[in-house]
TrEMBL record:
It catalyses: beta-D-glucose 1-phosphate = beta-D-glucose 6-phosphate. Binds 2 magnesium ions per subunit. Belongs to the HAD-like hydrolase superfamily. CbbY/CbbZ/Gph/YieH family. The record marks S114, K145 as: Important for catalytic activity and assists the phosphoryl transfer reaction to Asp8 by balancing charge and orienting the reacting groups. This is Beta-phosphoglucomutase. Its cofactor is Mg(2+). Keywords: Carbohydrate metabolism, Isomerase, Magnesium, Metal-binding, Phosphoprotein. The active site is at D9, D11. GO terms for molecular function: beta-phosphoglucomutase activity; magnesium ion binding. The keyword Phosphoprotein applies.
Length: 214
């Protein structure tokens, strides 16, 4: 069965914003008197904000009232927004625009599936919005990755069957979410993550063969 649509995760696949999420969480944990390493960050990559906090509280043995959680979540997002105030097309990852142009040239439909509430803002700031037929973000779906909802809603809005969609993802939670939705998955991480069908280092120099899953 041929691929008719390509669905992208945003942070860490198209835009170099992952490090800003990392830095914001690092600062939050520092204020709570805890270390936060790159390895710790792997546990929350691709995971929605409130779920990330739950994982971190458990990981670092911290208890917190619901009110305090709300305050921390707001602060994390404010820090992230401060970090991204300057982002523009320079923050696109390698090969992104060329690959999106190639997909459009070949008549494929394209979509974003991100659980970030800041998706629209980041797409606007980096000039990417024009490339996508469908954009599903944290305001449209509530179930965080690895739940398949974000990818299933994407397929529904694209009006394309999930097994005719190829997904580009960089996180374990994201790969699992897309596989559970019944899609083909390319891990953009330099190594196979979970049940991903293929893996690549970046979107640089890709051709249409990347969408061949036979
Ligand atoms: C994902 C990021 O895309 O979005 C996560 O990989 C982030 O790090 C999640 O926690 C939620 O994003 P936001 O912008 O709503 O905090
Ligand atoms: Mg990601």
């Amino acid at each position: 069965m041929g691929i008719k649509a390509v669905v992208f995760d945003l942070d860490g696949v198209l835009v170099n914003t992952d490090r800003f999420h990392y830095l914001a969480w690092k600062r939050i944990l520092w204020e709570l008197g805890k270390e936060f390493s790159v390895e710790d960050n792997e546990q929350i990559k691709g995971v929605a904000r409130s779920k990330s906090l739950e994982i971190l509280l458990q990981m670092k043995n911290i208890t917190m009232s619901e009110v305090e959680k709300m305050r921390v979540l707001r602060k994390k997002n404010n820090l992230y927004l401060e970090y991204i105030t300057e982002i523009d097309e320079e923050y696109l990852l390698e090969g992104v625009e060329e690959f999106l142009e190639l997909l459009k040239f070949n008549g494929l439909r394209t979509a974003i599936a991100s659980t970030s509430d800041n998706t629209s803002l980041v797409l606007e700031m980096t000039g990417l919005k024009k490339y996508f037929d469908v954009i599903i973000d944290g305001h449209k779906v509530k179930a965080p990755k690895p739940n398949p909802e974000v990818y299933l809603v994407c397929a529904m809005e694209l009006q394309i069957e999930p097994d005719e969609c190829a997904v580009f993802e960089d996180s374990r939670a994201g790969v699992l979410s897309a596989k559970r939705a019944g899609m083909k998955v390319v891990a953009v991480s330099g190594r196979i993550i979970g049940e991903a069908d293929k893996c690549i280092e970046s979107l640089k120099n890709l051709d249409m063969n990347i969408l061949d899953f036979q």
